[in-house]
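Researcher: Structure prediction, please.
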Amino acid sequence: MTTDARILHARSGVVLEQRGEDYAVSSLRLSEPLTFPDASQAQLAFESEVTASEQDPELMSRLGGA
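Model: Predicted structure follows.
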């Protein structure tokens, strides 16, 4: 069984996508995606992960940033 995924946001190596009825946040910092049944919880997790990623100088260097 395959589930369609739709990317909702992507920034600083972090992706928020909708997978069926659930939402997933993945990033270069996480070993496994975080999943949420609620879009607002997923959005908060996405923003938090973006902030953490942007504060990681090694990661930003790999992404071509600061």
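Model: The chain has a mean pLDDT of 91.
Researcher: Thanks, that helps.
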